[in-house]
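Hi Prof. W.,

I finally got the Thioredoxin prediction working! I wasn't sure whether to trim anything, so I left the full sequence exactly as given:
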Amino acid sequence: MTTDIEAEAGAGTPTEPVHVDGQSELDGAVADYEVVLADFYADWCGPCQMLEPVVETLAAETDAAVAKVDVDENQQLATAYGVRGVPTLVLFADGEQVEEIVGVQGEDELRSLVEQYTA
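And this is what came out:
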């Protein structure tokens, strides 16, 4: 059994979404985990709220780490990744951005996408 500290140190991936504040925290997550799904969202965004349980499930049930990025608090980070609308999901694998998905997607589609890079 791993502890939360071991999971955060890279012995596994977090089973809950991790809130990221700034480029250095996102860079750290991308460096620490093989696959990271970054969820660029806003609290006022209805579709983002609809997507929330999906990303929570993916964090719990896949080998990807899920990073939550509040675009209102991290406007420069959102701009750096070309986020023009929320929700936008950016998938990183082996330290590189490999996918970008704009809008609400179903759990099955997102799970399949993540599993292409974690298998």
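The longest helix spans residues 46-61. Does that look reasonable to you?

Thanks,
D.
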